[in-house]
Design goal:
The structure holds two protein chains of two kinds.
Chain A lengths: L6 H9 L5 H14 L6 E4 L1 H16 L10 E5 L26 H8 L3 E6 L33 H8 L5 E6 L5 H6 L3 E4 L19 E6 L2 H11 L29 E5 L9 H16 L3 E5 L7 H16 L18 H12 L2 H14 L5 H21 L5 E5 L15 H5 L6 H6 L3 E8 L5 E7 L5 H13 L13
Parallel strand pairs in A: 2-3, 7-8, 7-9
Antiparallel strand pairs in A: 1-3, 4-6, 5-6, 5-10, 9-11, 10-11
Chain B lengths: L4 H10 L6 H18 L34 H6 L4 E2 L2 E2 L7
Antiparallel strand pairs in B: 1-2
Helix pairs in contact in B: 1-2
Classes of the chains: A alpha/beta, B mainly alpha.
């Protein structure tokens, strides 16, 4: 059964002509169809995918096909796709068909990948449970009564249920790593600037990064290497030429110094999650790593700092949705103010409106110093804490989330309790660092537990190397939810 | 920090969002709770700390002043809610 193979294995099988791209496409389209109740996809593009698969089969018949030729993938519905709806999980973009492709979409297509469709997500990537989507919540394939995490919840559920072997996501405060943790996947948020943001609907421009949601570190490396690289169309894209992360996956771990921040293992973390992470640390030490206690003293301030900076940037970015140039427009506006106010009120959901209002307030006259400037200073302290930690260690390690996946509806009435989910992840975005979440066990209810590795700036290759070596001695990443085996 | 109903209306106007009377209490309550969370920032001493706007502490790249975009006016107008003869249409703003 093709879905029991990793993306790396499928790419090799395609090259060896053991299976065709069209056969693979049909297999995964049938799985998507059968798993409709997960609500993982907003749009399935069977016709477009078939044309791409046929072209991939032609490339595979020739010499030197591109690395992902014929490999099916899905894109989070935040990436603009030419000719295919890009909703961003919002009513305001329900009718939006982008006239261009995001750079990530373009690069993966050029690498030969076949796009099966666009996955569900929290509206404008604002959420940690995929419950703010205009298209309804996504269910966790490990337990349909629980959330898959968010905001890249559709991509996570789709890969976890093997409806597609790998998918893209974006991560502004944890939106790749937290759903990866909840769904037993390997999810990477790259260093700020490593992957182009061109064509990604902007949420918080100084925090947003795109990355892969994958079955393993090796799969994530293959996808990242295809996605990353300089792009003149993104003003914050890095010009550095970096070696492919794939090249160092097998490196040894002898001498690796793992920093364990004491703030990641305090009373806030569930005991089962902490125990699984500690067992994973022991496994890494058996492979030659050593540990050192480090401190990130301003970690707790990360949440309030993030919930000023991200909404402030969002309130500015989302000003473009005005009912004039594209997207939803209200019926019968009486004047221009009415057109703006009702198009936005009817087009945006409650969480998006809350964040726009918090951001507007924080940036408004008389409040700027107390909120936005204060948050930017704390951001500096948080980044400095990581710099200090990396003087003592090569990677920082801890749980990805305080708990395993929570129940659908459990946190929807209280935005603040939802925000606290990002406690271990959002400081990484504030500092612009790379982070990867990988599965390290299951709790008593059979729900996946994720561990996060954080690297210094541009340290993706080392993170994926450590994750890959860990996956060489464990099989948590190979487990499939029973219903989707 | 308590956000009043008047605050909600003022912020909503700045943000160009219509908030119905029946929604105001809910937003006032939620925004107040979020600001209570945000005010935990005050516990951190930030004297003499330089603000950090961005993870990349470098000047943005410049490029040659050359036209790189092609004219795609028709493609962009095609997705507008209302357009006519190359113009976006909005309600009358000048009497």
């Amino acid at each position: 059964m093709p879905h029991r193979h990793s993306l790396t294995e499928l790419a090799a099988m395609l090259r060896a002509r053991e299976i065709s791209a069209v056969e693979l496409l049909d297999h995964f389209l049938a799985r998507i169809e059968a798993a409709g109740e997960l609500n993982a996809f907003i749009t399935v593009d069977a016709e477009g995918a078939r044309a791409q698969a046929r072209a991939a089969d032609d490339m595979l018949a020739g010499d030197d096909p591109p690395p992902l030729a014929g490999v099916p993938i899905a894109h989070k519905d935040i990436f603009c796709t030419r000719g295919l709806k890009t909703s961003c999980g919002s009513r305001i973009l329900d009718n939006f068909i982008a006239p261009y492709d995001a750079t990530v979409v373009e690069r993966l297509a050029a690498a030969g990948a076949v796009t099966l469709g666009k996955t569900n997500m929290d509206e404008f990537a604002m959420g940690s449970s995929n419950e703010t989507s205009w298209y309804g919540p996504v269910k966790n394939p490990w337990d349909a009564a629980r959330v898959p995490g968010g905001s890249s919840g559709g991509s996570a559920a789709a890969v976890a249920a093997r409806l597609v072997p790998g998918a893209t996501g974006t991560d502004t405060g944890g939106s790749i790593r937290q759903p990866a943790a909840f769904c037993a996947l390997t999810g990477l948020k790259p260093s700020y600037g490593r992957v182009s943001r061109y064509g990604i609907v902007a949420f918080a421009s100084s925090l947003d990064q795109a990355g892969p949601l994958a079955q393993s570190a090796a799969d994530a490396a293959l996808l990242l290497d295809a996605m990353a690289g300089f792009d003149s169309r993104d003003s914050t894209s890095l010009e550095n030429q970096l070696p492919p992360t794939r090249a160092s996956l097998e490196d040894g771990l002898r001498g690796l110094r793992i920093g364990l921040p004491k703030e990641f293992f305090d009373a806030g973390v569930d005991a089962t999650v902490a125990a699984a992470v500690e067992a994973a640390v022991a496994a890494l030490c058996k492979l030659g790593a050593t540990t050192v206690e480090v401190s990130l003293p301003n970690m707790a301030a990360g949440i309030p700092c993030y919930y000023v900076i991200a909404p402030a940037e969002a309130s500015s970015n989302l000003a473009r949705f005005d009912g004039v140039r594209y997207g939803y427009r209200c019926d019968d506006p009486v004047d221009l103010a009415d057109l703006y106010e009702r198009s936005r009120a009817e087009g945006f959901g409650a969480e998006v409106k809350r964040r726009i209002m918090i951001g507007t307030y924080a940036l408004s006259s008389g409040y700027y110093d107390a909120y936005y400037l204060k948050a930017q200073k704390i951001r500096r302290l948080i980044a400095s804490d990581f710099d200090t930690a990396f003087e003592q260690c090569d990677i920082v390690l801890g749980p990805t989330t305080p708990t395993t996946a929570f129940a659908l509806g459990e946190k929807t009435d209280d935005p603040v309790s939802m925000y606290l989910n990002d406690i271990y992840t959002n400081t990484v975005n504030l500092a612009g660092l790379p982070g990867v979440s990988l599965p390290v066990g299951f709790d008593a209810a059979g729900l996946p537990i994720g561990m996060q590795l954080i690297g210094p700036y541009l340290g993706e290759a080392r993170l994926l190397n450590v994750a890959h070596r860990y996956q060489g001695v464990t099989d948590y990443h190979r487990q499939l939810p029973g219903m989707f085996a | 920090m308590s956000i009043t109903k008047e605050d909600v209306h003022r912020i909503a106007t700045l943000a160009r969002l219509r908030i119905g009377d029946e929604e105001v209490d809910g937003y006032a309550d939620n925004l107040s709770r979020i600001l209570d969370l945000v005010e935990q920032m005050n516990a951190v001493d930030t004297d003499a700390i330089e603000p950090m706007a961005h993870p990349l502490d470098v000047a943005l790249r410049l490029r040659p002043d050359e036209v790189t975009e092609t004219d795609r006016r028709d493609a962009f107008l095609e997705i507008a809610p209302a357009a006519d003869r190359g113009l976006y249409l909005v309600p009358r703003v000048i009497e």
